[in-house]
Design brief:
With about 160 residues, the protein is an alpha+beta fold. It has a single domain, classed as Cytidine Deaminase, domain 2 (3-Layer(aba) Sandwich). It contains 4 helices and 6 strands. The radius of gyration is 15 Å and the shape is globular. The two termini are about 30 Å apart. The model has no long low-confidence stretch (mean pLDDT about 95). The structure holds tetrahydrodeoxyuridine.
Length: about 160
């Protein structure tokens, strides 16, 4: 029997550097970009890039449901993962909804796959901050940990 395990930590927001505190705030700001008339579940994502800039994205839904896109991929669509300036250092994701508030949001399977592709392309890990409206934040060190036994470019080489 083999076991896969990974570490995650609960983030004490007071101990964040200004750059990371801003990252979390920018994810909240991204909620304003959400177009989610169907689910009424707003998701905001903020990327911290290697050049110190932030990029925002929010979920964009559509009457043709599968045409919608998640916040994480909306943010990622604006960068080139092969540009060293655009290397993603960290992503913060948050949400707002009428119901539950305390569980940090977890990226969907497709977004995990996309984050992992970028990690491989940029050859460095992406720190992932999962946030909740109540203020709970979890940190995961790499997309690799969100998607064990993944399919990747290596399978096609
Ligand atoms: N959603 C995201 O934007 N990111 C995720 O990782 C999970 C789900 C969006 C898609 C849809 O607009 C809404 O949340 C409900 O599924």
């Amino acid at each position: 029997m083999s076991t896969f395990s990974f570490n995650y930590s609960t983030v004490n927001k007071a101990s964040l550097t200004p750059q990371y505190a801003t990252l979390l705030l920018r994810a909240e700001e991204a909620l304003l970009l959400s177009y989610s008339p169907y689910s009424r579940f707003r998701v905001g994502a903020a990327l911290l890039l290697a050049n110190g800039s932030y990029r925002l994205g929010a979920n964009q839904e559509n009457a043709s449901y599968p045409a919608g896109i998640c916040a994480e991929r909306a943010a990622i669509a604006g960068i080139n993962p092969l540009n060293p300036e655009h290397k993603i250092v960290a992503i913060a994701i948050t949400y707002s909804t009428e119901g539950h508030f305390d569980s940090p949001v977890a990226p969907c399977g497709i977004c995990r796959q996309v984050l992992l592709e970028i990690e491989h392309a940029q050859q460095s890990a992406i720190e992932i901050y999962l946030s909740s409206p109540s203020g709970r934040v979890l940190k995961i060190d790499t997309a690799e940990h969100l998607l064990p036994f993944h399919f990747s470019k290596g399978n096609l080489d």
